[in-house]
Design brief:
alpha/beta, Maf protein, seven-stranded mixed sheet, 6 helices
Length: about 190
């Protein structure tokens, strides 16, 4: 049985590779505009489903298609990827010295029977205070861009994370332990590993 990651995220692909999963990547661009009144959990679940369904419609089994979406949440507000350096600066200033949530929605679709399993995982992340000078130095790297919340916990920004509660891999973009449970429930086993 094959795995298809319905995501072009290099971080998700790295998690899969490091876990020894044999997979292919298939693009799954969907409209990521939030629906008014949509909660963060509803938002990431909807996008994970849309990505998985888009790729499943172009796939032939036996295969498990995995779609995912991640968002940072502070004070109930979703914070996506920064649109500019100034947007990234504002985001990091907001996160500095505070605790935020990282919410990831995941949808798995097994083909050919179209069996579906989905879930939402939340991790709490506490940032230490970050000085304006540190933010400027961080913004001078490529790291804050194309990442929800304008940071990468697995990179330079890890020095600002004083505590997490929940799954570390969720903050990177794919809650690995829960993914493994769901893959197993769909019939995946160690025999499919590299």
């Amino acid at each position: 049985m094959k795995l298809i990651l319905a995501s072009s995220s290099p971080r998700r692909a790295e998690i899969f590779r490091d876990a020894g999963l044999n997979f292919t990547v298939m693009s799954s661009a969907v409209d990521e505009t939030p629906i008014p009144g949509e909660s963060p959990n509803e938002y990431v679940h909807r996008l994970a489903c849309a990505k998985a369904e888009l790729v499943a419609a172009r796939s032939v089994g036996p295969v498990i298609v995995i779609g995912a979406d991640t968002v940072v949440v502070l004070d109930g507000q979703m914070i996506g990827k920064p649109r500019s350096a100034e947007d990234a600066r504002r985001t990091l200033q907001l996160l500095s010295g505070r605790t935020h949530s990282v919410v990831t929605g995941v949808m798995l679709i097994r083909l050919p029977d179209a069996e579906r399993r989905g879930f939402v995982e939340t991790t709490q992340v506490q940032f230490s205070a970050i000085s304006p000078e540190e933010i400027s130095r961080y913004l001078a790297t490529d790291e804050p861009y194309d990442k929800a919340g304008a940071y990468a916990i697995q990179g330079r920004a890890g020095r600002y994370v004083s505590r997490i509660e929940g799954c570390y891999f969720n903050v990177v973009g794919m809650p690995l332990a829960r993914l493994w449970q769901e893959l197993t429930a769909l019939g995946w086993s160690d025999e499919f590993l590299d």
